[in-house]
């Protein structure tokens, strides 16, 4: 993951430059991109997929790569919980937990209102920005609800 400043703005973004051998990932990225293109909520990650984009390496060499552009975030909720357990010897405070949970519920309610189901909500997919606002991320398993019943097993399970 690289950090960059978005053209024409002062907004810092994260870039993921996909290696050509990661082509198996493209269908997931395209699905995620098409779903996130329809969503605009402060607690849902901003995401853009730039296929076959000219990229200039540090060496000056120009190559064509698929690039993912997302909002720059600070950390994920999983690492915040672990850090709290280590430093405080207990979980997050109730006040902080309530704030994170409220933002997460607002994001999920917004997505469901748009007909989008995430299907892989877990602490690692809940990112936090520099002000510790929740950003629901990783919509690779997401789907659009329709009249069909969905029986696909998705997400993280053992």
Give your account of this protein's structure.
- This protein is an alpha+beta fold and 158 residues long.
- 27% of the residues lie in helices and 27% in strands.
- The protein has 2 domains: 2-71, Phosphorylase Kinase, domain 1, CATH 3.30.200; 75-144, Transferase(Phosphotransferase) domain 1 (Transferase(Phosphotransferase), domain 1), CATH 1.10.510.10.
- The chain has 3 helices and 9 strands.
- The strands form 3 sheets. A 4-stranded antiparallel β-sheet has the order 1-2-4-3. A 3-stranded antiparallel β-sheet has the order 5-7-8.
- A hairpin with a 5-residue loop joins β3 and β4.
What's this, in brief?
The chain has helices at 26-36, 77-88, 94-113; strands at residues 2-5, 12-17, 47-56, 62-71, 75-76, 116-117, 126-128, 134-136, 143-144. With 158 residues, it is of the alpha+beta class.
Q: How are the secondary structure elements laid out?
A:
Layout: E1 2-5, E2 12-17, H1 26-36, E3 47-56, E4 62-71, E5 75-76, H2 77-88, H3 94-113, E6 116-117, E7 126-128, E8 134-136, E9 143-144
Antiparallel strand pairs: 1-2, 2-4, 3-4, 5-7, 6-9, 7-8
What would the average pLDDT be, to the nearest integer? 88
How do the helices and strands follow one another from N- to C-terminus? Answer: EEHEEEHHEEEE
**Structural class from helices and strands?**
alpha+beta
Helix content: 25-40%
- The Cα radius of gyration reads 17 Å
Broad shape: globular
* Major beta sheet, strand line-up: 1-2-4-3
CATH hierarchy, class of the largest domain = Alpha Beta
CATH architecture of the largest domain: 2-Layer Sandwich
Number of helices: 3
What is the strand tally? 9
Q: How many structural domains in the coordinates?
A: 2
Could you name the CATH homologous superfamily of the largest domain?
A: Phosphorylase Kinase, domain 1
Residue stretches low in confidence (pLDDT < 50, at least 5 long) are none
What does the largest sheet look like? 4 strands, antiparallel
Task: Kindly report how far apart the N and C termini lie.
Answer: 28 Å
């Amino acid at each position: 993951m690289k950090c960059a400043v978005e053209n024409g703005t002062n907004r810092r973004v994260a870039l993921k430059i996909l290696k050509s051998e990661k082509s198996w990932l493209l269908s997931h990225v395209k699905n995620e991109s098409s779903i996130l293109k329809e969503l605009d909520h402060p607690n849902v990650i901003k995401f853009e997929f730039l296929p076959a984009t000219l990229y200039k390496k540090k060496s000056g060499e120009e190559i064509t790569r698929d690039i993912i552009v997302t909002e720059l975030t600070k950390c994920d909720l999983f690492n915040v919980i672990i850090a709290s357990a280590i430093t405080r010897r207990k979980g997050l405070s109730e006040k902080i937990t309530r704030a994170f949970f409220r933002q997460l519920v607002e994001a999920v309610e917004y997505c469901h209102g748009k007909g989008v189901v995430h299907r892989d909500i877990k602490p690692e997919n809940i990112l936090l920005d520099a002000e510790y606002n929740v950003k629901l991320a990783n919509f690779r398993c997401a789907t659009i609800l329709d009249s069909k019943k969905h029986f696909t097993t998705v997400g993280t399970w053992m």
